[in-house]
Automatic annotation (TrEMBL):
Annotated organism of origin: Ailuropoda melanoleuca
CDD domains named in the record: crotonase-like
Lineage, highest ranks first: Eukaryota, Metazoa, Chordata, Craniata, Vertebrata
Protein's name according to its UniProt entry: AU RNA binding methylglutaconyl-CoA hydratase
Family: Belongs to the enoyl-CoA hydratase/isomerase family.
A Pfam family the protein falls into: ECH_1
GO cellular component terms, semicolon-separated: mitochondrion
Alphabetical GO biological process terms: fatty acid beta-oxidation
InterPro entries cross-referenced by the UniProt entry: ClpP/crotonase-like_dom_sf, Enoyl-CoA_hyd/isom_CS, Enoyl-CoA_hydra/iso, Enoyl-CoA_hydra_C
Assigned keywords, A-Z: Lyase
Length: 337
């Protein structure tokens, strides 16, 4: 980092001047109870305090959530907390078969409520977003409902969709979109907000808004170029082209493509396999790694390296404080799982 600063005069001074602002942003992304290390913030956070950020909030403001395979919300959105060897994996299943899983006011409200609960649940390790409807992931906004809205309602409704998709993008744990069917418009924007996307070869994906003489309004114009590059993203948005799973894999839109199975859930099965791979890893490391990557991608390399250094330093505090004879909840949450 020092060499980079020498090569680019003034870069280090600019970095130092904006460091407090960066730290504040990173701390906000980490969520309640988090702080970055004292080397960037002044006084150092004690390891026990850092560790407690992963336990229930002090004072018991957030009750611990039990794990069950039961449906946790109304039928349009099913939230399942998996059990046994899959404990820590949460599945958000969209279930509006009669409307091709399109975003209604009610579904957006339920998604917002579910995401709000998940982001503060320290036992959640990975979240899978899928469809409970065969052949459909999400068809975007519910245009039939939108037609019935007053003109003054349309703007706030689109803003709410955008806000919920942003909330999913900002979840502190890994997120996987399992695309086993049609993902158009806002449906693809929902998938783009996830860290990893997997799809069946028969799935169909596209930002098709220009066919309706509008543009993507749920983050598509920003996240698609970041996923596949600016030129190709422009081509796909300008043409409203729809890709199948193989084509989406070829352009880098998805990470894995699978032949669809008889049950119609090949992408979900692959997402579950990936989530199981994540489970044994340190939960603090997973969250901080996601933070470092996400924040680093939005800034120049010198600043990104400073973010990585700050995140690594806080992990090191936990490791340095580890005592093999201490089996307290704080230490276990910080180091093991």
């Amino acid at each position: 980092m020092a060499a980079a600063a020498v090569a680019a005069p003034g870069a280090l001074g600019t970095l130092q001047a904006g460091r407090a602002r960066l730290v504040a942003a990173c701390s906000a992304r980490l969520g309640p109870g988090w702080r970055l290390p004292g080397s960037l913030m002044g006084s150092r956070v004690a390891p026990a305090i850092w560790a407690r950020g992963w336990a229930s909030a002090a004072g018991g403001s957030a009750p611990r959530r039990g794990y069950s395979s039961e449906v946790k919300t109304e039928d349009e959105l099913r939230v399942r907390y998996l059990e046994e060897e899959n404990r820590g994996i949460v599945v958000l299943g969209i279930n509006r078969a009669y409307a091709k899983n399109s975003f209604s006011k009610n579904l957006i409200k339920m998604l917002s409520k579910a995401v709000d609960a998940l982001k503060s649940d320290k036992k959640v390790r990975t979240i899978i977003v899928r469809s409970e409807v065969p052949g459909i992931f999400c068809a975007g906004a519910d245009l039939k409902e939108r037609v019935k809205m007053n003109p003054s309602e349309v703007g706030p409704f689109v803003s709410k969709i955008r806000a919920v998709i942003n909330e999913i993008a900002n979840l502190p744990v890994p997120t996987i979109a399992a695309i086993d069917g049609l993902a158009l418009g806002g449906g693809l924007e929902l998938a783009l907000a996830c860290d990893i996307r997997v799809a069946a070869s028969s799935a169909k994906m596209g930002l098709v808004e220009t066919k309706l003489a509008i543009i993507p309004g749920g983050g598509g114009t920003q996240r698609l170029p970041r996923a596949i590059g600016m030129s190709l993203a422009k081509e796909l948005i300008f043409s409203a082209r729809v890709l199948d799973g193989q084509e989406a894999k070829a352009v880098g839109l998805i990470s894995h493509v699978l032949e669809q199975n008889q049950e119609g859930d090949a992408a979900y099965c692959k997402a579950l396999d990936l989530a199981r791979e994540f489970l044994p890893q340190g939960p603090v490391a997973m969250r901080v790694a996601k933070l470092a990557i996400n924040q680093g991608m939005e800034v120049d390399l010198v600043t990104g390296l400073a973010i990585e250094e700050a995140c690594y330093a806080q992990i090191h505090i936990c490791l340095s404080a580890w005592n093999p004879h201490d089996q307290s909840e704080e230490q276990v949450l910080c180091i093991v799982n």
